[in-house]
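JOB MANIFEST
job_type = single_chain_structure
chain_count = 1
residues = 173
[input]
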Amino acid sequence: MFHAAYVRDFSIRPPRPFEPRGADGGPSFSQSDSPLVAICHEVAPVEGEVVLNKNDASAFEEGSLQSRLEKLGIEWLVICGVWTEACVAASTRDATAGGFRCLLVKDACASGTRAMHQVGILNLANRLYGGGVADTDRTERLLGGDQATVWRSTLPVPFRFTLEDTPALYAAL
């Protein structure tokens, strides 16, 4: 189990051009001393689980995740998290680009609004080649060794959605 926390630290990665800063000149988002960077208690790491601090959206940003997973012989990643269209999307794209198959757990991700989350999931599904999308129930069955149906992409960009049909397409995943 790997956890990734977005902790913006200018001493590790200097601010990007135009990056907003706080009144003190430090990060305005995910500042290391903010309680908002803590991993929520429902999914908090237990002893032996790895916690990576990252300075960008992707869990692969900090550098060691790819090699750690390869060393363990991991083929599939089960992905969940916060800010579906940002951190979850960046991590999923980087994982796929790194040769991992991803199972995106759609109801174990969240964003600022339901619409942002559902659009984020559909955008990921549109290019989740070699992976799949499932809900928590189906994912738990798979992880327990049972069979479960997951949505798998068979076409490039299968969802050409509108805001009106997004909820129905999301529910069908």
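[summary]
The chain has two domains: 1-55, 74-173.
The mean pLDDT is 93.
exit_status = 0
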